[in-house]
Design goal:
- This protein is mainly alpha-helical and 232 residues long.
- It contains 8 helices and no strands.
- It is 62% helix and 0% strand.
- Helix 3 packs antiparallel against helix 5, helix 3 runs antiparallel to helix 7 (190-210) and helix 6 (160-182) runs antiparallel to helix 7.
């Protein structure tokens, strides 16, 4: 190999030269740390399970606390007591019919009885006046019988308020019956007097029967059924 060729060859660079050359080149980019994010929020305890929906208590639950009362069938005392009031109603209708059919005789008996007792019969107390009084009394009695029939129906179906009303009506009937039976001086026919006595006994028995303990227990049970929505 000639010297010219050798001069054209470059000598290998040393390590120092490599370092210098390396310094003149591109510097390596500095290592970058990944961006830091805020720490995850602390975990909270899971929410408790939702409570089941609450419903209002059944009607009458607060009033009738504890165990339900023992089921009670309609006792004999209620059946007999209501039957006594029904019989009194039937006899009342019969008495009203008899009064209308014997109206003239009843008027004459009333006037004759007043004179026999030494009472002065005013001139204004005529036959027509007595007739009007008896007719009005009979009509009022029929209206009362109709109302009593309604109260008997409600009492038969376990309505305690109707039983109380029957007691009140029965009390007036008993007082009236006492005057009829023991008052003397009756001016009605024998048949009507007998009807009045029977009605007095029926009303007295009906009032007593509806006031006995089995009747009270049944009416309380029927009220519990209505308050708890099990019947109307």
């Amino acid at each position: 190999m000639t010297s010219g060729q050798g001069g054209s060859e470059q000598e290998p660079t040393g390590p120092g030269q490599q370092g210098q050359d390396g310094g003149q080149g591109w510097n390596e980019p500095p290592s970058q740390q990944p961006p830091s994010y805020p720490a995850a929020p602390p975990a909270y305890p899971a929410a408790p399970p939702a409570a089941p929906p609450s419903y209002p208590p059944a009607p009458g639950a607060a009033q009738w606390g504890g165990a339900a009362p023992r089921p009670v069938d309609r006792p004999v005392t209620v059946r007999a007591g209501i039957g006594a009031f029904m019989a009194n109603l039937i006899l009342g209708v019969i008495g009203a019919i008899v009064t209308f059919t014997q109206l003239d005789d009843l008027i004459n008996q009333a006037l004759a009885a007043a004179r026999a007792q030494g009472q002065t019969v005013p001139d204004t107390l005529t036959h027509d006046t007595v007739r009007a009084v008896i007719l009005v009394g009979s009509i009022v009695g029929l209206v009362i019988l109709g109302l009593e029939a309604m109260f008997v129906w409600f009492a038969w179906n376990g309505r305690n308020w109707a039983r109380i009303v029957l007691w009140v009506i029965g009390g007036f009937g008993i007082i009236s019956g006492l005057f009829t039976v023991f008052g003397g001086g009756a001016t009605s026919s024998g048949f009507l007097e007998a009807l009045s006595i029977i009605q007095f006994l029926l009303v007295l028995g009906g009032v007593i029967l509806l006031a006995l303990a089995p009747s009270n227990e049944w009416y309380r049970y029927r009220r519990w059924l209505r308050d708890t929505g099990q019947t109307h």
